Amino acid sequence: MADDNQNQISSRSSRIYDVVIFGASGFTGKYVVREALKFLNAPNSPLKTLALAGRSPSRLSEALKWASAPNPPPKIPLLTADTSDPNSLTRIASQAKIILDCVGPFRLYGEPVVAACVESGCDYLDICGEPDFMERMEASYHDKAAEKGSLVISACGFDSIPAEMGLLFHSRQWTGPSAPNRVEAYLRLESDKKIVGNFGTYESAVLGVANADKLVELRRSRPKRARPAIPGPAPPKGSIIEHQKQLDLWGLKLPSADSIVVRRTLSTLTENPHGLPGVNESDENRKTREAFWSTAKPAHFGVKLGSKSLLGLFPFIMFGVFLGLLSKVSLGRWLLLKYPSFFSAGGFRKEGPSEDEVASATFKMWFVGQGFSDSSLASQGNKKPDTEVITRVMGPEIGYLTTPIVLLQCALVALKERDNLPKGGVFTPGIVFGATDLEKRLQENGISFDFISVNSLSA
Ligand SMILES: NC(=O)c1ccc[n+]([C@@H]2O[C@H](COP(=O)([O-])OP(=O)(O)OC[C@H]3O[C@@H](n4cnc5c(N)ncnc54)[C@H](OP(=O)(O)O)[C@@H]3O)[C@@H](O)[C@H]2O)c1
């Protein structure tokens, strides 16, 4: 077993590229390239060799030019690979320590990339926000990935790192005997220009809603996961729209991937209360990891979209209604995909946001947690939460600035700390990166984690 691990470690260290960005010519991909270039051969950076991969060398070359401007493009290998050609994927996966996959919708294009990475023992990180893809990959590839020494981690973008790391940060504010029962995250997108997403994300959302029943089917066919012990009763379902007094925000329930990913992280933690052991970790790292996870306090978790006015939620409600009504039938899907701007009230465009629109957008995500000043109160019949803690994660535009930042920082942790991460398997980002220095790295790169307040709740 130890020899086996050693062989995999030495096979990884002999690979030509530290990182290959697949789908580098895409809208998000080119922003990921721009972020990666900041760290390529920078002092103390473990990123020494980088290649870009995609279907078209000329589009890759354009993306590299855009990403390096105003500097001339550095000499970086451009590799040709197509998801319909498994050999091309094996070729890139066998040359790389990590593939950063930006080719979506993942339900259409992701699986062959995961398969090639697992087979080649290469690590795979992506920016997927599609829960059905993530859970399908876990069901199909976890055991093989564990055996082959390939880490497969989806949702390393805005979906769902701010939620995962934000909840862990929030949980650490419940010190001593106090413990949260429920945490509601309120996401507010801000800009003095229009807030716009690219068509790739829109298409992924349309196909996700269209295939929602497949996820239900998949879950039915899988063994039940462990549920964390959370003090106090499960919170009531609550209304779809509500007013949050402390934040003075209207909140609309978001069926985002975040709460699903967080739930999977909490299940893995319940099954592994000390977190996941590193493949070749030091004693010191084992102690740090165990100490970190011993302070994590799970809670019921949900996400809401926040707006200063009820009217501000209206376009999102209408988009949700259109998605629900039209995505289930092929004519409806055709209409949705043909006219993204109309159905999303300008929220998504075929050509994506302008650079100015990207640069002027920001997000704030407040975590409002309610729980008990003493968790033993919850089992003594005093079942109403008596304490409220508010924390916040804040950063630049979500899709094309925050997503590349978090994806790159995850990759840098995986390069630098590979011995301290699990040998392989399909996991959520929180359980793999929670106990590493990812949060500190995000803080250093423009994504802040702040404690806001703690209050007593009246009985
Ligand atoms: N987690 C988050 O918060 C977050 C943020 C942003 C984006 N995303 C996700 O990222 C994905 C991409 O979004 P996007 O807006 O960047 O889309 P996009 O602009 O359409 O980019 C798609 C990329 O995939 C490539 N591609 C398509 N089919 C391929 C195939 N068969 N083989 C190889 N490459 C192929 C395209 O290459 P060509 O240049 O050759 O066409 C392009 O590089 C979506 O699923 C989106 O939801 C997630």
UniProtKB/TrEMBL annotation:
Span of domain Saccharopine dehydrogenase NADP binding: 19-153
GO BP, sorted A to Z: glycolipid biosynthetic process
Residues spanning the membrane: 310-331
Keyword tags: Membrane, Transmembrane, Transmembrane helix
GO cellular component: lipid droplet; membrane
InterPro entries per the UniProt record, alphabetical: NAD(P)-bd_dom_sf (IPR036291), Saccharopine_DH-like_oxidrdct (IPR051276), Sacchrp_dh_NADP-bd (IPR005097)
Family under the similarity heading: Belongs to the saccharopine dehydrogenase family.
Protein name: Saccharopine dehydrogenase NADP binding domain-containing protein
Species per Swiss-Prot/TrEMBL record: Erythranthe guttata
